[in-house]
């Protein structure tokens, strides 16, 4: 399967859309693309895993590193992983990745998370 990272906009934020398999062979490409995007000092970014076909522990580890880097840089990061995408959601849920990475199931949740932060809750 081909791997591609597309630069898009999701919920008014810069986004990287990951197509294909996010695994040991491709995780470094996402890390490089996200680091370059964070250097442009956006308020927030979205890693869109909606079209991603597979996620392994290397991909999960990369998402954790990106979340940490985003926090340190003051960039709000959201990982979009719909519940309907079982090959991606299953490892996210089994690894409890949501406790370390801001994972949302729908674009509408991004605005809610931002509103909660703005309200100080």
Written description of the protein model:
The protein has a single domain, classed as STAS domain (Transcription Regulator spoIIAA, 2-Layer Sandwich). The chain contains four helices and six strands. Strand 5, helix 3 and strand 6 form a beta-alpha-beta unit. Helix 1 packs parallel to helix 2. 31% of the residues are buried. The C terminus is likely disordered.
Which key terms come to mind for this protein?
121 residues; Transcription Regulator spoIIAA; 6-stranded mixed beta sheet; 27% strand
CATH class: Alpha Beta
Question: Please, how many helices?
Answer: 4
Q: Tell me the CATH superfamily.
A: STAS domain
Class per helix and strand makeup: alpha/beta
- Beta percentage is 25-35%
Condensed summary:
The chain is an alpha/beta fold and 121 residues long.
Helix-strand blueprint:
Elements: E1 4-10, E2 13-22, H1 27-39, E3 44-48, E4 52-55, H2 57-73, E5 76-80, H3 86-94, E6 103-104, H4 108-118
Parallel strand pairs: 2-3, 2-4, 3-5, 5-6
Antiparallel strand pairs: 1-2
Helix pairs in contact: 1-2
């Amino acid at each position: 399967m081909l791997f591609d990272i597309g630069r898009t906009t999701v919920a008014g934020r810069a986004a990287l859309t990951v197509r294909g398999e996010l695994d040991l062979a491709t995780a470094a490409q996402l890390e490089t693309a996200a680091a370059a995007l964070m250097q442009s000092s956006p308020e927030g970014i979205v890693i869109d895993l909606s079209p991603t076909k597979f996620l392994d522990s290397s991909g999960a580890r990369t998402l954790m590193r990106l979340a940490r880097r985003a926090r340190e840089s003051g960039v709000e990061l959201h990982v979009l992983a719909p519940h309907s995408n079982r090959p991606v959601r299953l490892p996210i849920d089994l690894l409890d990745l949501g406790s370390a990475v801001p994972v949302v199931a729908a674009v509408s949740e991004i605005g809610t998370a931002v509103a909660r932060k703005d309200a100080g809750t």
